[in-house]
Design goal:
With 286 residues, the chain is an alpha/beta fold. 46% of the residues lie in helices and 14% in strands. Strands 4-6-7-8-3-9-10 form a seven-stranded mixed sheet, sandwiched between helices. The chain has a three-stranded antiparallel sheet with strand order 2-1-5. Helix 2 crosses helix 3 and helix 7 packs parallel to helix 8.
Length: 286
């Protein structure tokens, strides 16, 4: 589903007008993001179901996503550090939506994923401390003859369970659902995406491959493709992952080009680098 049809950035004339007004008032000393895209003659973006902005560090991928997200009033978790005239630039941008409205528009950054993983780690730490306490209680009751207060139901239950259950069973029963402790960072990151992405919505994803192994990047690729195809989601993604650049039917803007162009994934320099690396070592795989 294509909700956002096109987006217009400032051209050189628009930027000159904006900068002239700023200099006249002498209130700012930074012109960010002026000049990032106009120098590449890039001011009109036509979107598809999946649109990718590709480029190296400093190419403007994240800046572009933030401009679009701010203009669309997207939901966001992490705070955006704006330049002094960022809002003025965004206000002058224009966009066109289709007749159908998305249920939500959300930008998700790699920082959001890291924060989620840190939260999981914190939960796991608390679980580990609880496990140690329960293990100690089990051993004290079973092997040290700690007696139960027969007016306390929980102590009676603990005393009975310690004599009839293994340590692991005793601990698991008291921790309840402990699946989270068994998940790797990659699995937790995939779970994050499954929780965040709902039907009939626009998602602006800034380098979603971070924290994911190659195997899990391929799983995320499939999840994004299915969400676009079957659940009416539109994706706007910045990435240099060769796996995500291979998303089916994605339109890719190469921000590394002197003049920004739409390219096929196998025409991109980063993908060619991977190809040449493995091609030169092809005999090692035989």
């Amino acid at each position: 589903m294509i909700y956002l049809k096109e987006f217009t950035l400032l051209n050189e004339d628009n930027e000159h007008s904006l900068v002239f007004d700023i200099e006249k008032r002498r209130i700012f000393n930074s012109y960010y993001p002026v000049g990032i895209f106009s120098i590449k003659n890039f001011n009109k973006i036509i979107f598809d179901n999946i649109t990718i902005f590709y480029g190296g560090n400093g190419s403007g991928k994240s800046t572009l996503l933030n401009i679009i997200a701010e203009k669309l009033n997207s939901l966001r978790k992490s705070k955006l550090e704006k330049g002094a005239i960022f809002n003025s630039y965004v206000n002058m941008c224009k966009y066109e939506m289709s007749y159908e409205e998305p249920e939500e528009i959300k930008i998700i950054t790699s920082d959001d994923v890291f924060d989620y993983l840190l939260d999981i780690r914190s939960i796991n730490s608390n679980i580990n401390r609880r496990k140690e306490k329960l293990s100690k209680e089990y051993n004290e009751i079973k092997f040290n003859g700690k007696s139960a207060n027969f007016n306390d139901y929980e102590q009676i239950r603990d005393s009975y369970d310690s004599k009839h259950k293994t340590l692991s069973k005793f601990v698991r029963d008291r921790l309840g659902n402990n699946n989270i402790i068994e998940q790797s960072n990659g699995e937790s990151a995939l779970l994050f995406w499954e929780k965040e992405i709902q039907e009939n919505s626009i998602y602006i994803l800034d380098e979603p491959e971070n924290s994911l192994s190659a195997e899990n990047q391929i799983k995320l690729k499939k999840f994004i493709e299915d969400s676009a195809r079957f659940y009416n989601c539109q994706f706007i993604i910045s990435t240099h992952s060769p796996f995500l650049l291979n998303l089916n039917y994605a339109k890719i803007y190469d921000l590394d080009s002197q003049k920004v162009e739409v390219k096929k994934w196998n025409e991109l320099s980063n993908v060619k680098l991977y190809y040449n690396f493995f091609k030169e070592r092809e005999d090692e795989f035989k």
